[in-house]
């Protein structure tokens, strides 16, 4: 198996340490490519195995605070990148990822309905949760003072059961 992986990418040759998430992305991409070549006479579930197991989707939802119009941009994902700095529990990391932000000042939203820049709220809502949810804990941050990346050694506790219901979009 290791020899086969080394053949996939030069980054995994030799004895250097590699990021587990990068390895998983490479492996899933490789599997997707190989399975896409499965003849159409074979079951579709075989060709779509990686997507069916690992791909989810979410929407960036932006609501204009002047006219209340909401726009959505849909995104497919294979993992969620979670900030850990200053957070001690996985539930806090998820709450941070899905938290709403206010777009104002130089960062105002270009509302199509108002035909003007307006203050707005933006957040993320899960549309489809994958069967296998990969969470990437962002262990590095950019240190402005030193101009380099700094490792975050924050310990993060995981619950026995993960409830994503608060983050899943409700049907209209």
User: What share of the residues lie within helices?
Assistant: 25-40%
CATH class of the largest domain: Alpha Beta
CATH domain topology of the largest domain: Cathepsin B, Chain A
Strand segment tally: 10
Report the CATH architecture of the largest domain. Alpha-Beta Complex
Which spans of ≥5 residues are poorly predicted at pLDDT below 50?
none
Taken as a percent bin, the fraction of beta residues is 25-35%
What is the typical, i.e. mean, pLDDT?
A: 88
Straight-line N-to-C gap: 47 Å
Q: How many structurally independent domains?
A: 2
Structure annotation, total helices: 5
Strand order of the largest sheet: 2-1-7-4
Family: Belongs to the peptidase C19 family.
Keywords: Hydrolase, Protease, Thiol protease, Ubl conjugation pathway
Protein name: ubiquitinyl hydrolase 1
GO cellular component, one term: cytosol
Describe the structure.
Its EC number is 3.4.19.12. It comes from Cryptomonas curvata. It is an enzyme of class 3 (hydrolase). Belongs to the peptidase C19 family. Residues 1-172 form the USP domain. This protein is an alpha+beta fold. It has two domains: 1-54; 55-172, Cathepsin B, Chain A (Alpha-Beta Complex). It has five helices and ten strands, in the order H-H-H-H-E-E-E-H-E-E-E-E-E-E-E. It has helices spanning 2-8, 20-36, 44-47, 49-54, 90-98, and strands at 56-64, 70-77, 80-83, 101-103, 109-111, 116-118, 120-128, 135-138, 140-143, 148-151. A four-stranded antiparallel beta sheet has the order 2-1-7-4, with no helix packed on it. A two-stranded parallel ribbon has the order 3-8. A hairpin with a 5-residue loop joins strand 1 (56-64) and strand 2. It is globular and about 55 Å long. The mean pLDDT is 88.
